[in-house]
Amino acid sequence: MSDVTPPTHLRHRIGDVWVAPRAGVVEIRNPADPNELVATAPYDDADAVPTAIASAREALPGWSRLGAPSRGEFLFRAAELLLDRASSIARDLTREEGKTIGEATGEVRRAAAILRYFAGRTADRIGEVYPSAAPETRIQTVREPIGVVAIVTPWNFPIAIPTWKIAPALAYGNTVVFKPASATPLTAQHLVEALVDAGLPAGVLNLVHVSGERFGRQWVAGSGVAGLSFTGSAPTGRRLADQALGSGVKVQLELGGKNAVVVAADADLELAADAIMRGAFASAGQKCTATSRAIAVRDIAIPLREALVDRVSRLLPGNPLEPSTNLGPVIDLAARDRIAALVAAARTDGARIAGRSTAHEIEQIGAFAPALVLDRVDPGASIARDEVFGPVLVLLEADDLDQAIRIHNDVAYGLSGSLFTRSLANADRFVRAARVGIVHVNGETAGAEPHVPFGGMKASSSWSREQGHAAKDFYTQTKTVYWDGLADIGPFDLG
Ligand code: UN1
Questions:
Q1: Rounded distance from Cα 212 to ligand 1 centre (Å)
Q2: How many CA atoms lie within 13 A of 86 on its CB side?
């Protein structure tokens, strides 16, 4: 399967130059075939973070002063460029991250849609006018940028998530230091190239390829960064947030999930089984919105298990560049081993593998984890409570809908959840009781449209939401203007 495409040697983007590595590089290998070197990227350059922040600060006055719709033009152009380049970017995304080519292509198109959405938002109102108790005063609010924003993103959506942070940051007049996941620097570079090629002024968007550890040490130290938007693991997010809050930085976190689909006794079984499969096994389960638990009300538990066991056996691991492949690898061999250890521990605690994907020799070469359906799992066991971030679905049973909702809510996370039912009363009960930021009725737990808020409750987020109009709340601050001492223009004719 090895590919003849030569590796790309990646650079930082700081100000208006692409900066070569000074302190060695990290090798990015294709998770489906680790013999293939996809890219090399800088990893430990001491200067990259401070110089990128300085460059973003320098660019801030000019960028924030531009008329917002003029900023939108850059985003519209970048969207066009991503679409023009969609097939080659998607190919690199798959070679780097491992998701199937269909999913990768969809993700690049999604990034273009997000850019367009936020480009359009630059023509929205930026404030409001209020009356005052005093007749000679009128009060106005104006949204202003917050300043330099640090954007730290995960590898599992290596273009969509950076775009849904960078696009609103830029649209609302901020400048950016972007630190992508160390595992997916090539896709990050494609996004930055599209924005640079769209004509973005120097320093408005800076890209640093550094380890999380170096970034963690350097980003906040006396730097003048105003905001941090982070999506990734809970421990890293909490650590960065602690540093940020100690320095007065505005923070937004999107962390893990342990999302469940509840299947009521009156559900459309086929619809539910198909949605659970997509939610659990697309992107090899590596989404914070993935379905990792299916909670069936007793009467439907056995038919649901049979439907899922049948469907999972039809998943076949393969080269994710082949359009027919329906199960790609996980991100790397360490992730494969970590997932295998979690499954082994669950089995020691009594879980049973009820069904799995079909074995294939490619599993010997690449970082493939089998798609698994586990049953006989105790709702209190780690595999039923902690995020796996891999293709593992846990089946749980409940006596009735109320108990199912209790199990649904009884985890630390609260990102997304779904109920399958034909009853409006059941759906209404679930929608109100679910302690999650995103609720689906008769749909899969993953997926997010760009024009509505995205985010979780409890340990999944830091109260704020991303995308849609919610993005404005994070990437702007409000100035309240009292226009005092206005002239009394005297009586005038209202007729
Ligand atoms: C989706 O479900 O399409 O990291 C997006 C993640 C989430 C994004 C999910 N923040 O998986």
A1: 20
A2: 18
Q: Could you write out the DSSP letters of every residue in 108-138?
A: HHHHHHHHHHHHHHTTS--EEEEE-SSTT-E
Fold agreement between 8-255+462-480 and 259-441: no
In the CATH hierarchy, which fold is given to the domain comprising 259-441?
A: Aldehyde Dehydrogenase; Chain A, domain 2 (3.40.309)
Task: Kindly indicate whether the domain formed by 8-255+462-480 is annotated with CATH number 3.40.605.10.
Answer: yes
pLDDT of residue 332: 98
Helix/strand/coil for 64: helix
Which pLDDT tens digit goes with each residue over 180-229? Answer: 999 999 999 999 999 999 999 999 999 999 999 999 999 887 778 999 99
Q: Which residues have CB under 6 Å of ligand 1? A: 154, 156-157, 161, 231, 254, 287-289, 446-448
- Domain locations in the chain as residue ranges: 8-255+462-480, 259-441
Give, using CA atoms, the residue closest to atom 5 of ligand 1. 447
The answer to whether the pTM exceeds 0.90 is yes
Which of the four pLDDT bands, split at 50, 70 and 90, describes residue 370? very high
User: Which atom of ligand 1 is least distant from the CA of 154?
Assistant: 4
